[in-house]
Specification:
Layout lengths: L11 E10 L2 E8 L5 E8 H4 L3 H13 L8 E6 L3 E7 L6 H7 L5 H20 L12 E3 L5 E3 L28 H4 L6 H18 L9 H10 L10 H10 L10 H5 L2 H4 L18 H11 L3 H8 L6 H14 L11
Antiparallel strand pairs: 1-2, 2-3, 3-5, 4-5, 6-7
Helix pairs in contact: 4-6, 6-8, 11-12
Bound molecules: ligand 3I7.
The site of the ligand [NH3+]CCCOc1cc(-c2cn[nH]c2)ccc1C(=O)Nc1ccccc1 has 19 residues, from strand 1, strand 2, strand 3 and strand 5.
Length: about 325
């Protein structure tokens, strides 16, 4: 296997393919130095064709977006023919499959997931990004059933901030906002809020609010803003969904209002926190373990790690930190 991916030899032990979408293949792998599992997204440059800029967009975004509900990027490798992105492993798969397996979620369970989705989206908006492809296939579950947002290939960081308009029509039709599919200019944050309304509906109902095999009739349904309200939806759930699925983006609820919404606070009584739980200071135990392994002083190791080059050292630091956050020993497997 590694002969096919010589660049990974000695650094990662590749295992089975765990996902593939279009131009990318995602494989389970073990990070050799820590023994931690990772997901490696492998993209062939030739197969990417015009989609090559999407990879650059995704890499640049994921380097900036370190948060507990965003799939963590650990390392980037580029060769003549390929890109590799070493990512946080989410063993419980897509939220999409979880919803299908349960038909639909009850309000309490939907609320736990939706708070995590709001946390991730509020964070990327705060950092000046719009995701633009929010859907259950792009929300993965880690071993503690926490959601991790993936696929920033279509995200946008409008120049001059989130108040500036976007033009590209993109994302998955069933989750796309009316203003986005009507070819008008739109605000990324407002389009993401619509997609989150479709997501919440899918969590609570187990099917989509707007659906049709033919794209033109799907678009008409979206632009009508009319959808079925099943009798199992509580009045509070229906009100929140209606506030998000407002055809006029100016009447649509904002992320700031959503964070404090009574439906989201029910049973929690605290707003959705979206600040990153990742500390900006370096963890001493991880630095010490790496310094010993590489035969450097702690100061030298702090300088090297602080460059955040997203090479094997960056991955080793983050994965040691993951071990620590999961209460495992902060130890590298191979001692010098
Ligand atoms: N719908 C998800 C299919 C698997 O894709 C991934 C899985 C993981 C993953 C799995 N475990 N941990 C992380 C991390 C990233 C991706 C991903 O970005 N896939 C993708 C996105 C756009 C185009 C092509 C592929």
């Amino acid at each position: 296997m590694s002969s096919q991916y010589p660049e990974l030899k000695g650094f990662y032990h590749l295992r089975e393919t765990i996902g593939s979408g279009g131009f990318a293949k995602v494989k389970l792998a073990y990070h050799a130095l820590t023994g931690e599992k990772v997901a490696i997204k492998i993209m062939d440059k030739r197969a990417l064709g015009d989609d090559l800029p999407r990879v650059k967009t995704e890499i640049a975004a994921m380097k900036e977006l370190c948060q507990q509900h965003i799939c963590k990027l650990f390392q980037v490798l580029e060769t003549e023919t390929r890109f590799y992105m070493v990512l946080e492993y989410c063993p419980e798969g897509e939220l999409f499959d979880y919803i299908v397996s349960k038909d639909r979620l009850d309000e309490a369970e939907a609320r736990i997931f939706f708070r995590q989705i709001v946390s991730a989206v509020a964070f990327i908006h705060y950092k000046g990004y719009a995701h633009r492809d929010l859907k259950p296939e792009n929300l993965l579950l880690d071993e503690e059933q926490n959601l991790k947002l993936i696929d920033f290939g279509l995200c946008a960081k409008p120049k001059g901030g989130m108040e500036n308009h976007l033009f590209t029509c993109c994302g998955s039709p069933a989750y796309a906002a009316p203003e986005l599919i009507s070819g008008k200019q739109y605000l990324g944050a407002e389009a993401d809020l619509w997609s989150m309304g479709v997501l919440l509906y899918a969590l609570l109902c187990g099917y989509l609010p707007f659906d049709d095999e033919k794209i033109p009739s799907l678009y008409r349904k979206i632009q009508s803003g009319k959808y079925d309200v099943p009798d199992w939806l509580s009045p509070e759930s229906s009100i929140l969904i209606a506030q998000m699925l407002q055809v006029d983006p100016k009447r649509r609820i904002s992320i700031q209002q959503l964070i404090n919404h009574p439906w989201l606070r029910k049973g929690f009584n605290i707003p959705c926190e979206f600040e990153s739980k990742y500390k900006s200071t370096l963890d001493e135990d991880c630095i010490t373990e790496l310094a010993v392994h590489y035969g450097k002083t702690r100061t030298e190791m702090e300088e090297d790690v602080s460059k955040w080059t997203y090479d094997y050292l960056t991955a080793s630091y983050f994965l040691l930190l993951e071990k620590k956050m999961k209460g495992r020993p902060v130890r590298l497997l191979q001692r010098p």
